[in-house]
Predict the 3D structure of the following.
Amino acid sequence: MENAVFIAGNVLPIFLLIVAGWLAGRKKLLTAAWSDVSSRLVFQFCLPALVFTSIYASDFRIAFSPGLLAFGMIATLLSLPLLFLLARFLLSDPPARGAFIQGGFRGNFMILAFPVIGNLFGEPGKARAAILLVGIMPVYNLLSVTILAAHSREAKAARPSQILRGIATNPLILAALAAIPFAALGWRLPAAIEKFLLYLATIAVPLSLLDLGASMSRRKLGERPAAVIMVTLYKVAVLPVLFVGAALALGFTGIDVSIIFMLGATPTAVASYVMAKSMGNDENLAGEIVLATTVASMVTIFGGLWLLRTYFPSHM
């Protein structure tokens, strides 16, 4: 019971913010126009500030883990083959297959895993998760653009220059890379700049979660129930079990196991809907997957963290 209360106290506030955003969306307090503006603000300023301050305030020698970085990138790649098989079995329409495959591997690590890890492990956990983000964001972007282009209604080819430009200009990656020299060499910014970045970082998670909830209020389920159920089970139930099993087998210990669990268990990123729509894939299916995986993850994240804390306390 004590473990359940501890996990609920750290996970429930995150999901309550999503519920608050959903209610505000249903009441038209947070409109689609507001979501468009707030999501750009969060992506361009607030989340980069959160990534920067998380690494900036850390002991880089402790936060940096080549093994964790390699695991995150390789595990993401290895999650794809089964998704391709499921997509071929469940869906005949290529644009729907593209949305399905992307929805099965692209997690909302920044918006959902970050605050949970921060609540559980404080600044050291956030710093370790931020550095992992440097590795998985390029993988997410490369795979998403390539898969969606291959399944596009217009059959557009993914130009390498466009993919590389998108990665090179990603604000989250740039923020992480900018923070690493400060953490590694002990450099410090003026106090006023530190406080400014902290203000931006502080609103990143609440605003992101409210926006996520509001966007869910405009989504509906029902067009392809079998595909949505299968990809949801895979994303928030199968992947975290596989990731944690592999991590334990490879000798990962401590908070790395919980971070790896969150990497697998986080629901599909809202960005997958935007990318599916812009690249000629099935945006309706992409939106259904975001909604279903987010709702299901409320159960699987709580349950998974409770199991880790109860039966593998050394990894919490």
Q: What stands out?
A: The radius of gyration is 19 Å. The chain has 14 helices and no strands. The first helix runs from residue 2 to 26. The mean pLDDT is 87.
